[in-house]
Design brief:
It is a single chain. The protein has an 8-stranded mixed beta sheet, sandwiched between helices. The protein is globular, with a radius of gyration of 19 Å. It contains 15 helices and 8 strands. Strand 7, helix 6 and strand 8 form a beta-alpha-beta unit. By secondary structure, the chain is of the alpha/beta class. It has 2 domains: 174 residues, 3-Layer(aba) Sandwich (Rossmann fold), CATH 3.40.50; 134 residues, N-(1-d-carboxylethyl)-l-norvaline Dehydrogenase, domain 2 (Orthogonal Bundle), CATH 1.10.1040.
Length: 327
C-alpha cells in the first residue's frame, strides 16, 4: 500500500498520518478547510491540535475529498457521530475496493448502530475495518512506542493493512473480530467518564480500581451479547484501552468525568470539546437493555449525564446494589 489516505486532520488524524508516513507510505491528509490545508502544507505544523510536532515530508495536506481516491486504504478519523455523513461523502469518490478504516470510537446516536454497520450501509460491498487500542495522539505523533489492533473480516486484507501501517514505533496487530474491537473502543469511553468522576470526587484509588474491574465485567457481558469474542476484549482494543483511558486526565473522557466529580455541570465539564463517551452513553445503555445486559456503571453515567441523578445518587445506587457472587 504505497498511498494511505487520512480523512480528518485533528490530533489523532495528524498523528496517524505521521505514523503512516514513517512506515514508508505516501499520505494524503484531508481536512475540511482549504485555508488550513494550505497553511499546513506551508508550515508543516498542526499547532492547533499537535503543538511542537512536525508534519512528515511524505504527507500531502488537501481540502479536496477526491484526492483520497488514489489511496489504497483510507483511515476515517473524524468524530464518531459524523460517520454516516463522511462515509456517504467518501462513497462518491472512493472505488468500492478501497477499504475504509474506522478510527473513531462510538455508537451512532438515534439509530443505535455500530459504526461499521453505518459504513456498510453507506458503501455496500466495500471492505470496512476498525483501528483501536491504547493510544494517545501526542504519543504516536512524537514517535513513542505504541501498539494497537486493526480488525477486518477479510483476514488477508487485515494483515496487509497492519503491515502497511506498522513502523518504527507503531505496532499494529490484526484480527478478524470487527465487532469486538469496535465495542471495546466505544464502551471504554463511557466507563472512563465514571473513573474520572471517582477521581474528581476524591473517592480514592481503591474505588477507581474496583470501577475498572467491574466496568470490564460489564464490557465483557455486552460484547458477548453482541457476538464478539472474549479474547478480543482481553487484548489491546479492550482491556488495554480501558486501562489507559481510565487512568489519566490525558484522556478527554476521563478529564470530563473528573470535572463532573469536582462539581462542574455537564456543559461546563466538556469545555466546548467533543467527549465521545458522553455522545455514546445513551446508545450503549439502550443496546444493553435491548439484550437484557446488566451494565450498572454505564447506566449510572447515562443517568448523571441526562440530569436524572446527581453523582452522589449514582454512587449510592452502585454501592447499594444487592450483594452477589462476583461472577
Amino acid at each position: 500500500m504505497r498511498t494511505i489516505g487520512i480523512a480528518g486532520a485533528g490530533a489523532w488524524g495528524t498523528a496517524l498520518a505521521n505514523a503512516a508516513a514513517a512506515a514508508g507510505n505516501d499520505v494524503v491528509l484531508w481536512m475540511r478547510s482549504a485555508e488550513q490545508a494550505r497553511s499546513l502544507a506551508a508550515t508543516r505544523a498542526n499547532e492547533r491540535c499537535l503543538p511542537g510536532v512536525t508534519l512528515h515530508e511524505r504527507i500531502r495536506p488537501t481540502a479536496e475529498l477526491a484526492d483520497l481516491a488514489s489511496a489504497r486504504a483510507v483511515l476515517l478519523v473524524t468524530p464518531a457521530q459524523t460517520t454516516r455523513e463522511m462515509s456517504t461523502a467518501l462513497a462518491s469518490v472512493l472505488p468500492v475496493a478501497v477499504p475504509l478504516v474506522l478510527c473513531a470510537k462510538g455508537i451512532e446516536r438515534g439509530s443505535g448502530a455500530f459504526l461499521c454497520d453505518v459504513v456498510e450501509e453507506m458503501r455496500p460491498g466495500a471492505p470496512v475495518a476498525v483501528l483501536s487500542g491504547p493510544s494517545f495522539a501526542h504519543d504516536v505523533a512524537r514517535g513513542l512506542p505504541t501498539a494497537v489492533t486493526l480488525a477486518c473480516r477479510d483476514a488477508a486484507l487485515a494483515e496487509a493493512m497492519a503491515n502497511a501501517l506498522s513502523g518504527p514505533t507503531l505496532r499494529v496487530y490484526h484480527r478478524g473480530d470487527v465487532r469486538g474491537v469496535e465495542i471495546g473502543g466505544a464502551a471504554k469511553n463511557v466507563l472512563a467518564i465514571a473513573c474520572g468522576a471517582v477521581a474528581g470526587k476524591g473517592l480514592g484509588e481503591s474505588a477507581k480500581a474496583a470501577l475498572i474491574a467491574r466496568g470490564f465485567a460489564e464490557l465483557l457481558r455486552f460484547a458477548s451479547a453482541y457476538g464478539a469474542k472474549p479474547e478480543t476484549l482481553m487484548g489491546l482494543s479492550g482491556l488495554g484501552d480501558l486501562v489507559l483511558t481510565c487512568s489519566t486526565s490525558q484522556s478527554r473522557n476521563f478529564a470530563f468525568g473528573q470535572r463532573l466529580g469536582q462539581g462542574m455541570s455537564v456543559a461546563d465539564a466538556s469545555g466546548g470539546k467533543l467527549v465521545e463517551g458522553a455522545a455514546t452513553a445513551s446508545a450503549l445503555v439502550a443496546l444493553a437493555r435491548a439484550k437484557n445486559v446488566d451494565m450498572p456503571i454505564a447506566e449510572a453515567v447515562e443517568q448523571v449525564l441526562s440530569g436524572a441523578w446527581t453523582l452522589d445518587q449514582a454512587v449510592d445506587a452502585l454501592m447499594n446494589r444487592p450483594i452477589k457472587s462476583e461472577h
